[in-house]
Amino acid sequence: MSSTGRPTSRDVAQAAGVSQSTVSLVMGGKWTGRISPATAQTVQEAAVRLGYRPNLAARNLRLGTTRTVMLIIPSLAAPFFGAVHAGAARVAAEHGFGVVVYPWPDDAGPADSPFAAPHEAIDGILTSSLAADVVSRFSGTPVVMLDSDPEGGATTVLFDVAEGMRAVAAHLAALGHRRIGHVAASIDQWTFRIRGDALAAAVRAMPGGSLIRASGTLDVGSARDAAGELLDRHNRPTALVCDDDLMAAGAYKAARARGLDVPRDVSVTGFDDLQLAIALEPELTTVRLPAEALGAQGMTALLGLLDGGRPRPRSLPGELIVRTSTAPPPPPR
Amino acid sequence: MSSTGRPTSRDVAQAAGVSQSTVSLVMGGKWTGRISPATAQTVQEAAVRLGYRPNLAARNLRLGTTRTVMLIIPSLAAPFFGAVHAGAARVAAEHGFGVVVYPWPDDAGPADSPFAAPHEAIDGILTSSLAADVVSRFSGTPVVMLDSDPEGGATTVLFDVAEGMRAVAAHLAALGHRRIGHVAASIDQWTFRIRGDALAAAVRAMPGGSLIRASGTLDVGSARDAAGELLDRHNRPTALVCDDDLMAAGAYKAARARGLDVPRDVSVTGFDDLQLAIALEPELTTVRLPAEALGAQGMTALLGLLDGGRPRPRSLPGELIVRTSTAPPPPPR
DNA sequence: CTGAAAGCGCTTACAG
DNA sequence: CTGAAAGCGCTTACAG
Questions:
Q1: Among A71, A65, A66, which Cα is nearest to A296's?
Q2: For chain A, is the Cβ count within 10 Å smaller at the N or the C terminus?
Q3: Residue B75 CB neighbours (<10 A)
Q4: Higher pLDDT, A276 or B35
């Protein structure tokens, strides 16, 4: 064994009485028809005995690949992106790939952050919610974009958020709601633009439908203020459609602060179906976005890209989960 | 430039009219006193012009290090561990290290999972909430354990959860509570054992104090059932101390389902201070655990270990955050 | 101050 | 069926 402690293929070769290249062939699983089964078994036993594991740096150097993919997301502290990571890492592991996460800080834009991490050796990039023009900076590195503008030219895996928002609107319309308030995320991302556009179109199609909107950031306090602004209007909406579940929690607070009961006085809907949705009282009617599947499908597409393929864009359906935060509107005052 | 497209130090050397070793010295920042400033500048310009970035696999092979650390945690879908990751990744990046996350699935134990990822080339391991005996499997790889049993022999960075739990008990005692219910996590981990022991000792020290306990898993539904069991006792507790914030959300539900108001009829406390704590109504009195700092301090300790140091164990204080889910107990019936 | 050379541990033609 | 050898792109003594 080499003096540094960790055994190399050369050590295994010596222990098994064969050449180093034979060890490499056996360990790489490319020996059938080239090495006698008896020799192969001797090598495998020696490898196990010595606790041999191939040096990845050497393999990577030789093959020109790292079998590592970078996942760029807004924040891992958001449970949604934790699920995206889980799906991506699962599929990656099935193919012998690792995932390095690059969360960019809230204050730093995506513009330069990932490139401040020059120590990363990666084969490809999986990224969520990035502005499309940022893709151009990834010159040469294969990219798959998640839940992002498909017009950017990159391969995308999307949620069908427009269909999800139409399902919300149809549900509210069926309950009898006409005056809809949109508690919107004030974030310039494709997914939120689409949600807003789809809701506006759906309300426009309702007979007698009207839509008002207030924006906030993706946190409880900001959403509470935005929702409160809508509830303080003269002719207040009977339903608040929120851009995600956390904002819906803020809408609950705005309603309660005004003595309004959810759902008797005002209905509230969310988006994502996080664990929060059932932690709230009443439990939240929301659109379930399959975050784990997004990560998994995205990684599948990226591995296809790395294989030289041309994976086609995919879109994952959201599902309306009706719980107890929505009900018919109160009778006119 | 080499035919594969990506420039190497050899390409830069040719463009700058110097040798490859000079390029390496300049790029590695080890040139002062060895290379003339003029030459160094020529090299740097050529490197920028060609878009040269050192091949990490080659550097890793040469140096016998990967500058990568594996973070092993229960799940990234839990926002708590997202924050741990953020802290660890921040400190790692400051030292030119990358972090690979290894979340183990809920159903698989930690026993073999990380070793089913043999494609990872790592220098060290940062891990949370692992059973102490698992450390022995990491033979040879430096390990720092987070929020885990310090008796295991590994370097640890802990939360002072015992002190946090004592603060909860003191807060409740000061409000007048004596009959305490513990909604406990049924997970065999150091951090939860300590929470239970500290609470038991604190209640024992209260004049007239009594403690009953029910256990559940770390989710809303299971915690709701456990809390409900306590609330259905003949002489029901006036306060429910929950092992984390999500379980507290379950306790809220159990109370509401029985027509009990929080905090008028029963006080509830949590642990962690996740975003959920202020999304709930009423906002949750809880112990804030600095998850980002845990990851950061853990990574600092691990880098110290990799530097050949012997970092001493650290303990991070929790902070009781009093909100509106706790109040004096109702008058005796 | 600069360059030629060794060598990290692999994979993979190539020769036998 | 097996082995000797080249070479991936670096870092770092060593020679000049």
A1: A71
A2: C
A3: 18
A4: A276
Burial (CB count within 10 angstroms: exposed 0-12, middle 13-18, buried 19+), residue B105: exposed
Q: What is the DSSP letter of B115?
A: G
A218: closest CA among A245, A257, A185? A185
Nearest of B140, B9, B60, B100 to residue A58 by alpha carbon: B60
What domain range is B169 assigned to?
161-289
Interior CA angle at B296 toward B320 and B79, to 5°? 60
A118 and B55 within 8 Å at the Cβ level: the answer is no
User: Tens digits of per-residue pLDDT, A122-167?
Assistant: 888 898 866 555 555 556 788 899 999 888 778 999 999 999 999 9
- As ranges, strand C nucleotides with an atom below 7 A of a protein CB are 1-5, 7-13
CA B250 to chain centre: 23
Place of tokens 């809390």: B227
Residues B183 and B256 in one domain: yes
Q: For residues A150 and A185, which has the higher predicted lDDT (pLDDT)? A: A185
In a domain, residue A215? The reply is: yes
Of B76, B121, B250, the CB nearest to A82: B76
pLDDT in tens, B171-197: 999 999 999 999 999 998 899 999 999
pLDDT in the model for residue A104 = 65
By C-alpha distance, the chain A residue nearest B55 is A121
Q: Which nucleotide is nearest to B42 (CA to C1')?
A: C2
Which pLDDT score, from 0 to 100, does residue B133 have? 52
Q: Which residue has the tokens 């008002």?
A: A212
Q: Which residue has the tokens 């929080």?
A: B262
Residue B191: closest CA among B225, B153, B237, B157 = B157
pLDDT at A111 over 80: no
Tell me what the pLDDT averaged over chain B comes to. Answer: 88
CB contact under 8 A, B77 and A77: no
Exposure pattern of B255-279 as b/e (b: 16+ CB <10 Å)? beeeebebbebbbbbbbbbbbbbbb
Report chain B residues whose CB lies below 8 A from the CB of A119: 56, 67, 93, 96-98
Mean pLDDT along residues A169-191? 96
Q: Would you report the helix, strand and coil content of chain B in percent, each value rounded to 5? A: 45, 20, 40
Count H helices, E strands: chain B? Answer: 11, 12
- Residues B82, B216, A273, A216, CA torsion sign: negative
Q: Are both B241 and B188 inside the same structural domain?
A: yes
Token readout for B317 is 């204080």
Residue B189 falls within a domain, yes or no? yes
How far, in Å, CA of A286 to CA of A289, rounded?
9
Whichever domain contains A93, its CATH number is 3.40.50.2300
Residues B104 and B26 in one domain: no
In angstroms, the first-to-last Cα distance of chain B is 86
- Side chain identity at A317, as an amino acid letter? P
B82 three-class SS: helix
- For chain A, the domain total comes to 3
Instruction: Tell if the CB–CB gap between B56 and A246 is shorter than 8 Å.
Output: no
Does residue A7 or residue B297 have the better pLDDT? B297
Q: What is the DSSP string of B182-240?
A: EEEE----HHHHHHHHHHHHHHHHSTT-EEEEEEE-SSHHHHHHHHHHHHTSTT--SEE
Sheet with B68-73: strands ordered across = A314-317, A155-160, A143-146, A124-128, A68-73, A98-103, B98-103, B68-73, B124-128, B143-146, B155-160, B314-317
Residues A18, A29: Cα–Cα separation, whole Å: 16
CA distances from A91 to A158, A252, A293, B106 (A): 17, 37, 10, 17
Question: Is a pLDDT exceeding 80 seen at residue B95?
Answer: yes
